[in-house]
Design brief:
By secondary structure, this protein is an alpha+beta fold. It is about 20% helix and about 30% strand. Strand 2, helix 2 and strand 3 form a beta-alpha-beta unit. The longest helix is centred in the N-terminal third of the chain and has 20 residues.
Amino acid sequence: MRRSPLFFPSRALAMTALGLACSLASAQEAPQLGLPRVELTAGMHRIEAQVARSPSERQVGLMLRRDMPAHEGMLFVFEQPGVQCFWMKNTLLPLTAAFVADDGTIVNLADMQPQTEDSHCSAKPVRYVLEMNRGWFQQRGLKAGARLAGVPFSGSPQRAARP
């Protein structure tokens, strides 16, 4: 049986491309730091939050971050309210997740341990989840029922984050 001289190189190239695509999809090598940011407030406390909107941005979240300034966090934005559940696989920082209603009211808080696959879920359907360093909310006396403010919770149709 004769084979075309291009058969092996093109197959090898296709297999290499497929392998590269799979490895990039399955292995996050560095934290995502370039997401848009939005300023939020919790009473007199200012928060600068990266905004994770797309499924891939939400999936990576704060994975592989080794540190995070006290006033920073990540706001996960979902298209529709739902029971949102989070885990800490490949996440190196201890975090607290605030599950937040459309009007900015904190529905519930969950302290999460690094590098675990324990599920932490909202007590009711929410569209937003704000992750901060563990203890941030407690240190400021913020509990379920407290209210966050900022563009995402203003009822504004733009709900935009600045780049």
